[in-house]
Structure formats: structure tokens, C-alpha cells
């Protein structure tokens, strides 16, 4: 006879190790922490994470299937080459998906979500003024994804994450421009306008601000960035 569960406790669900590794690598890619041209091996990553090769290999293969990584003849992974055409296509698709997520988020935004977004905007501005490209890319990723997560759309989040996996590392090129003063990037950054619109509940203006933020950044890098041929 099966013993009754008198405590009413839910079963503990353990996240597989390969999924934890995948999430770590995904975040590093989207936040621009992995440099274009940097070679990734399962052995090196496993050492850094303190795990075995197997879950790292599984995570790398999953990222390869999403076109975030490309395999080299020696088996190591690297970022795919970024051509002007591919970059332009990715950024145009970002405008569509992220604009839609922002519009949807505006309609469902809670007070706590808005507070977190405003805090993220402040951190993003400060990172630019501190001329810290690593912190800026991380804060930019965190700020935008706070908005997109508030859309509560799993399908939009999947599409946006897939785009960011491919584009995130390339955004590091912002750091080599502006004559060493990253604070100037705020001239083509519209996160404050986005926050103002979110606070007013103006979905159309918030979405337009996000699309403009992406478009201005794309135009700048298309003019000043370095691409593969």
C-alpha cells in the first residue's frame, strides 16, 4: 500500500548539468563576453566551470545548432564569421521581434518589473559613462531582457535569444570607437526614452524607441565596424 504524502511537498526538480552549462555559455554570448575569433574547447570550458567535458560538449553542440557557434576542423568552436549582409539581416529581424516584445510587455508590466527596468537603465547609463565596454554590454543585455521577459511570450523570447546569441559578441566593436569615450554611445542609445514610454504605458512609443535603439546601433556599426568578406 502506497504511503500517503501527508506533508504536501512537491518533488525537487534538478536541472541537468548540460543545461546549466548551456545557460552560462548562452549568457556569455548574449552579453558579449566571448570575443569574435576566440576559440572555445570543451576541455578549457570544463576546467573553468569545474565540470567534465561531456555536459560542455552537449552545450556547445546545442549552440552550434542555433548558429551561435561554428566548428573548426580541429573540433574546437568559434563564432561564425559576420558579414555585412548577415549583420544587417540580424539587426533588422531584431527590430521586428524586440519591438513586438516591448509593445506586449508595456501592456502587462507590473510595478516591480518597471522598477527593475528603471534600475537597469540607470546601471546601463553609468556603465557607458565609466567607459567600460564589458559592463556596458552586460547592462545592455540585462536591461533589454528585463523588458522582453515582461512580455511573457515564450515564442518571442526564443526568437530574441537566438538572435542575440549570434549578434551579442559582435557588439563588442562599439568599444573601439567613439575616440575612447564610450559615453558618446548614449547619443545613439534610446533606453531612457524607452523607460519613459513604459512608465506612461505607451506601447507604440516604447516599441518605436527600442526599434530606433537597434537601428541606430546597426547603422553606426555598418559604417564603422569591421566585417568579414
Task: Explain what this protein looks like in three dimensions.
- The chain is mostly helical and 229 residues long.
- The chain has 2 domains: 17-78, Orthogonal Bundle (Arc Repressor Mutant, subunit A), CATH 1.10.10.10; 84-224, GntR ligand-binding domain-like (Four Helix Bundle (Hemerythrin (Met), subunit A)).
- 62% of the residues lie in helices and 2% in strands.
- It contains 9 helices and 2 strands, in the order H-H-H-E-E-H-H-H-H-H-H.
- It has a two-stranded antiparallel sheet with strand order 1-2.
- Helix 2 crosses helix 3 and helix 5 runs antiparallel to helix 8.
- It is globular.
- The mean pLDDT is 92.
Keywords:
single chain, 229 residues, Arc Repressor Mutant, subunit A, Four Helix Bundle (Hemerythrin (Met), subunit A), two-stranded antiparallel sheet, 2 strands, 2% strand
Short description:
It contains 9 helices and 2 strands; from the N terminus they run H-H-H-E-E-H-H-H-H-H-H. The chain is an all-alpha fold.
Give the ordered list of helices and strands. Answer: HHHEEHHHHHH
Q: Report the end-to-end length measured between terminal Cα atoms.
A: 70 Å
Shape call: globular
* Number of E strands: 2
Mean pLDDT: 92
> What is the percent of helical residues?
55-70%
Strand content is under 5%
**Which architecture name of the largest domain does CATH use?**
Up-down Bundle
- CATH level-four homologous superfamily name of the largest domain: GntR ligand-binding domain-like
Query: Which class of the largest domain in CATH terms?
Result: Mainly Alpha
- Category from helices, strands and their pairing: mainly alpha
- Which fold name fills CATH's third level, the topology of the largest domain? Four Helix Bundle (Hemerythrin (Met), subunit A)
Write down the Rg: 20 Å
Report the oligomer. single chain
Placed side by side, the strands forming the largest sheet appear as: 1-2
Please tell me the total number of domains.
Answer: 2
Weakly predicted, low-confidence segments: none
The number of helical segments is 9
| Biggest sheet architecture | 2 strands, antiparallel
